[in-house]
User: Which sequence fits this backbone?
């Protein structure tokens, strides 16, 4: 695997343009006042699938060979990547099989079914579903798509950071949530390729810190995964994003699940924005570590808004307590 370049991200922007609308970057007066910074939100939850992952799916499908498309694709997901692949496969007329953990977000499950994907439930978490999908790909001949270790996916999702820099060229800090690492590594490629002085800060749940520990130790490690935020719920670091982040990521912060829930409430209260757990994780980092953003021009990624009513209710209870 070779890491994508800034040129690959520009190519992806051209590829996905006819399929993926540009998302807005909005100044938030409420969050700016709270954080004593100039805060902008990159609203990826505005996308039709409600999450940034759709960018990667289109870029990948558009670059596959006819032979690969004929075999059908199989991938694993906690929800948003699966929606991305299901939607892209539908657009390109390709069979999609999505492996999911047994307790996958029901809203995301319903969306994948509506998009025509065949769903396979296996195991207690994303990583168990991923191993099962690799086995099925070998046995049935499907084209396996790793949900993180794929240069086309990373280049595709990197277009959200490219849009941010085009809209806010003098941004000083990009704060991005991290699960597997495709979004953060894409942001690193863009920021460091355009202006190396831009800080890229990753934020992950301390209840699923494998990515953080892999980055700190300089090798792929596994860790317990107990977070409520399924969009960042992985129990392993992944080779390709970690290789990119090793030299380009400026900082990596951990937040608690309660911090994430409070950030969901803060987004509703201060920015009139509905986010899922992963979508609020970057803001949780800014709230917990305000010194990282104070006095700076900051773009915070809201990576998705696919939250259930039960998740929202519980988060608002934590926020208001």
Assistant:
């Amino acid at each position: 695997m070779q890491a994508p370049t800034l040129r690959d991200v520009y190519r992806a922007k051209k590829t996905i343009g006819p399929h993926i609308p540009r998302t807005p970057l909005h100044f938030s007066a409420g969050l700016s006042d709270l954080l004593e910074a100039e805060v902008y939100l990159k609203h990826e939850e505005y996308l039709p699938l409600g999450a940034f992952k759709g960018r990667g799916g289109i870029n990948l499908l558009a670059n596959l060979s006819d032979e690969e498309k004929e075999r059908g694709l199989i991938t694993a997901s906690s929800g948003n990547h699966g929606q991305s692949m299901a939607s892209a496969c539908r657009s390109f007329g390709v069979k999609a099989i999505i492996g999911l953990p047994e307790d996958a977000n029901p809203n995301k499950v319903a969306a994948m079914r509506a998009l025509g994907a065949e769903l396979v439930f296996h195991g207690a978490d994303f990583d168990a579903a991923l191993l099962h999908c690799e086995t099925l790909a070998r046995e049935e001949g499907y084209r396996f798509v790793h949900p993180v270790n794929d240069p086309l996916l990373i280049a595709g999702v990197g277009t959200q950071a490219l849009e941010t820099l085009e809209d806010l060229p003098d941004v000083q800090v990009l704060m991005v949530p991290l699960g597997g690492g495709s979004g953060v590594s894409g942001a690193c490629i863009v920021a460091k390729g355009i202006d190396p002085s831009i800080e890229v800060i990753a934020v992950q749940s301390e209840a699923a810190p494998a990515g953080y520990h892999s980055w700190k130790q300089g090798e792929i490690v596994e860790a317990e995964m107990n977070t409520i935020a399924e969009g960042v719920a992985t129990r392993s670091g992944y080779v390709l994003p970690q290789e990119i982040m090793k030299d380009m990521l400026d900082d990596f912060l951990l937040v608690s699940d309660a911090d994430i829930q409070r950030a969901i409430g803060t987004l509703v209260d201060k920015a009139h924005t509905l986010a899922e757990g992963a979508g609020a994780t970057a803001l949780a980092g800014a709230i917990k570590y305000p010194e990282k953003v104070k006095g700076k021009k900051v773009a915070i990624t809201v990576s998705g808004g696919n939250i259930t009513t039960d998740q929202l209710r519980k988060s608002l209870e934590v926020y208001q307590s």
